[in-house]
Amino acid sequence: MMKGIGMFEMAAAEIEIVGDMAGPGVECPLFRLESGEVITLSGPAPKGEGAYALTGRFLQFSNCMQGRTFRIQHFRPAKQG
Question: Residue 10 gets which letter from DSSP?
Fold first, then answer.
């Protein structure tokens, strides 16, 4: 069984996702994946607009109130082109 962080259990293994910052959201920053899905972010989120590659895990539970939430461990600017 996986250990949680507070009341928010972590799901599966760490992965990398790519997309663009999409605004502030209700409780958490919004991020638009390359697929078009908009998710919320938890953890050390990038400041400002632009494309980013985020490494972390999707949370099974969140207080973000808008779609799935991704807990960021690391981020970097996404390579263009």
Answer: B
Which residue type, as a one-letter code, is found at position 66? Q
pTM of the model: 0.82
Query: Pick from 1, 5, 19, 23: which is nearest to 61 by CA?
Result: 5
Residue indicated by tokens 């009341």: 7
Angle, CA of 45, 26 and 32, to the nearest 5°: 50
Higher pLDDT, 32 or 11: 32
Contacts with 6 (C-beta within 8 Å, 6 or more apart), sequence order: none
AA identity, residue 23? G
**Domains detected in the chain:** 4-77 (2.40.50.140)
Whether the per-residue pLDDT at 16 is higher than 80: the answer is yes
- How far apart CA 44 and CA 10 sit, in angstroms, is 16
